């Protein structure tokens, strides 16, 4: 993790002393229940007129928003889920495919421009610090103008970006312990699943992965596993429609999980609820919920939820 935890704590506490813009703390001592909201359930980077937005999941822990992945449209989906953008406190990126990070920078910006900005800590694979820097460079003109003209705080000082070099503990606070697990998403090496162990609930987000037995171990006993899924007959049909799509087919098969295998992972992990998300292909409306889940149910006897945008679990 860069900077390391000690540096982060130092940076964070310095920030709190020098600025009034500290994260909002609930006055009530009663913890709010953990909520999971699917913001975008579509797999893949294309932006088409479809009912599924690009990948993102919101976890509200004690009413604090943790956003996992920032596919295109994440800011608007957060608004639709009732989250004012300057409440976003933590962002996690599973891997650096654009359907998971295209709106990382824009979410940082939109959170900053909404009312009084707060600190954001962002976690993800190596490359995230560069992405954050490059984005602020890209919007430098606007940011500099608004800081001077509107008296806004410097967003570059409100964002702390942490790169996760290897799996293991990522963040622990009073409400939650968050850990990362490497999954299988070739050719990308730093592809992570995240586990959120809150006081009342454990939630695992698979990220993009091929069948990964290590993920079953990682998700052991979780209340909710949000897992990606790929429906092979629709992929075969898609590939037939595209010229020279052999490589696309090979890529998809090597890096995503078929329903039967998702069921095996959920069963081995012994999770209570399995939520299917990041549907591949994500724009084929002819695939029914039954088709997405039939293979899963062959192996997993717990609750299966076929995800859709803005569904709360
Ligand atoms: Zn993806
Ligand atoms: Zn991916």
Compact summary:
The chain has helices spanning about 5-20, 75-80, 100, 105-115, 130-140, 140-150, 215-220, 230-240, 245-255, 260-270, 290-295, and strands spanning about 35-40, 55-60, 65-70, 90, 120-125, 160-165, 170, 175-180, 190-200, 200-205, 225-230, 275-280, 305. It is α/β, with parallel strands linked by helices and about 325 residues long. The site of one zinc ion (ZN) has 7 residues, from helix 3.
Number of helices, counting only DSSP H or I runs of 4 residues or more: 11
Overall number of strands: 13
Instruction: Write down the overall geometry.
Output: globular
Biggest sheet: strand arrangement? 7-8-9-10-11-12-13
Q: Specify the structural class.
A: alpha/beta
Provide key terms for this protein.
313 residues, alpha/beta, 7-stranded mixed beta sheet, 6-stranded mixed beta sheet, 11 helices, disordered N terminus, binds zinc ion
Question: Mind explaining what this structure looks like?
Answer:
The protein contains 11 helices and 13 strands. The chain is of the alpha/beta class. Helix 10 (259-269) crosses helix 11. One zinc ion (ZN) binds next to helix 3.
Write the layout of secondary structure elements.
Blueprint: H1 5-18, E1 35-40, E2 56-61, E3 64-68, H2 74-80, E4 90-92, H3 98-101, H4 104-113, E5 120-124, H5 128-138, H6 140-150, E6 159-163, E7 168-172, E8 176-182, E9 192-198, E10 202-205, H7 213-218, E11 224-230, H8 232-241, H9 246-255, H10 259-269, E12 273-280, H11 289-297, E13 303-306
The structure holds zinc ion (2 copies).
């Amino acid at each position: 993790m860069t900077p390391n935890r000690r540096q982060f704590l130092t940076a964070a506490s310095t920030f709190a002393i020098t600025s009034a813009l500290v994260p909002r703390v609930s006055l009530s001592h009663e913890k709010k229940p953990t909520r999971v909201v699917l913001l975008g359930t579509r797999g893949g980077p294309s932006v088409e007129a479809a009912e599924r937005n690009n990948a993102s999941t919101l976890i509200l822990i004690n009413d604090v928003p943790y956003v996992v992945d920032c596919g295109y449209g994440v800011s608007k989906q957060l608004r639709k889920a009732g989250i004012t953008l300057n409440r976003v406190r933590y962002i996690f990126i599973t891997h650096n495919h654009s359907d998971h990070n295209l709106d990382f920078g824009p979410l940082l910006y939109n959170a900053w421009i909404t009312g009084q900005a707060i600190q954001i800590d962002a976690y993800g694979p190596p490359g995230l610090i560069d992405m954050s820097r490059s984005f602020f460079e890209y919007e430098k003109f606007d940011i500099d103008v608004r800081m001077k003209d509107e008296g806004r705080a410097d967003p570059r000082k409100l964002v702390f970006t942490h790169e996760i070099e290897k799996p293991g503990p990522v963040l622990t606070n009073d409400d939650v312990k968050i850990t990362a697990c490497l999954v299988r998403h070739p050719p990308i090496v730093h592809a992570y699943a995240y586990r959120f162990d809150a006081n009342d609930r454990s939630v695992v987000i698979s990220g993009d992965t091929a069948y990964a037995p290590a993920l079953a171990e990682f998700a052991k006993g979780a209340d909710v596993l949000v897992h990606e899924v790929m429906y092979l007959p629709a992929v075969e049909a898609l590939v037939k429609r595209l010229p020279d799509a052999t490589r696309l087919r090979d890529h998809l098969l090597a890096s995503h999980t078929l329903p039967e295998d998702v069921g095996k992972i959920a069963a081995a992990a012994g999770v209570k609820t399995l939520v299917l998300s990041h549907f591949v292909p994500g724009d084929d409306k002819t695939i029914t919920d039954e088709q997405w889940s039939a293979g899963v149910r062959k192996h997993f006897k717990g609750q299966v939820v076929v995800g859709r945008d803005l569904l709360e679990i």
